[in-house]
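Collaborator request, handled under Task 6.
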Amino acid sequence: MLGNLLAQNPRFHVTPTSGLPSMVSGLREGYDKVIEYKAAPNDQELVGILRGVMFGSFEWVDRPVIINRHRSWPSELELIETILRRKAKFIMCVRDLPEILASLEKLWRDNKALSSMAAFTKGSPAACRTLDGRCNHWVSQGHIVGHAYTAMQDALTRGYHDRMHFVHFDDLTRNPQGVLQGIYKFLGEQPFNHDCEHVEQVTAEDDMVHGVKGLHDIRPAVRPVPKRAKELLGPLAEKYRGPYVWDDYLSRLRA
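Structure tokens returned to the collaborator:
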């Protein structure tokens, strides 16, 4: 939702979920496996290759600000800054975990009849036969929620909090203009008059690639969303209550 809202600004190019992190990290790992490079390694050459991939990916874009979306980027922060030769900036979209899990559970139920849900049960189909098992799976390291949370947590542990601007889902849906103003201040960009009542989905993805219809669908207007964790998760909702790693940072932003 935030990406499509920001895409209204003609200065911004916003990607759908990006394959660039996998491409860049794959090249970095593959460099040492090429025998010629292994025989004569050169860090400057490697950085040049990675810069070529990153900047070449957007050579066709005529907008000066690129917002590239993927939950893996915080785990590659040192690599990104080596490639960019400057500090990176991350807009960290967060939400209370029970509501994230409730949203995933709703998608699970909506798709279960005609989909294998392989993307949601990767590696643990048997464990995902119960609600408790699905939630544990989603928050475990390496999976859809746990992967993003631990990457964020570790980036903060490594001292990169100054590169991050946290946006809470509830803040965005209740006060979109105020949240957008904070984002523009963080990015160092001039504010733009966004239309929060008519948000066109321009970063469309083929969700059936993941086997989950509606995974990236957004609403046409920014509105508060009723909480559904108690309804969909029952007593499990309390298991995933905070505190969360972003609480202190959001408290300062809200002050």
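The cover message to the collaborator said: "Residues 139 and 145 are 5 Å apart (CA to CA). Residues 2-254 form a domain with the Rossmann fold fold (CATH 3.40.50). Please let us know whether this matches your experimental observations."
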